[in-house]
Amino acid sequence: MRIRAVEMDHTVPTVGWLLEEYPRPGSLHADRLLPLLEAHGVEKRLLGQFKLGTPIELPTGELLQPSDFMDPPTSRRIGLLSDTRDCSRAAAHCEGVDVLVHECTNACTNFDRQRGRGPDTIRRLAVEHGHSTPQMAAQFASEIGAKRLVLTHFSSRYLGSGSAYADGVMNEIRNLAKQHYGGPVTCARDFLRVEMQVNGEVHEHHPPRQPYEEWPGNIFKTASEAEGGEAVEAAAEVAEAAA
């Protein structure tokens, strides 16, 4: 695996990371190749080097090229970009990544709009502190052709309890990103596991929900209070003050 560090634009020196596998040979179409080798008495031991890119020469002088009998090589690539307000320096390195993990510290949610704060205000505050919004992350993902976007590094003002309220806020953030990016968008949580197979398939393994009382950062006294709404607003106000 190759790991590259790329300078980010933040309030202090920081870097993003590109994780890239060395190319893995594609699948061999043995059903087409083996009959040719057998017909010309070519030993199968040559297949090892053939898979690595060495042509096989038949007794007739004909060269069998690996690209004609194998799928294209594969290489999983992941971009990890946190603490940044501008990651344009990483664009060339992260082009076409399978998964882009991008910070999303601030977002203009319904909570903000009710208090007279619009998207421009939230973006300005995020940039002043060296961070990004879901729209900024999504626009970058779209520009580089990322296949999947995972948002992370949320401000503490966004509750991570796994409650209905917290899920609603994360859905708002996800939808803001989807306005600027057409691929799958995931809002990360603690202990979320994103598994990418060799063939490019991605599977997400989400942690189980925690009851309100078991969430370490919980300031809801009971679930019923949270459902009543007053505790939800109080929680958001406290989280905002702490952000």
From TrEMBL:
PANTHER family: ZINC PHOSPHODIESTERASE ELAC PROTEIN 1
Gene Ontology CC terms, in alphabetical order: nucleus
Origin superkingdom: Eukaryota
Gene Ontology molecular function: any one: 3'-tRNA processing endoribonuclease activity
Signal peptide: none
Residue ranges the record marks as coiled coil: none
Descriptive protein name: Metallo-beta-lactamase domain-containing protein
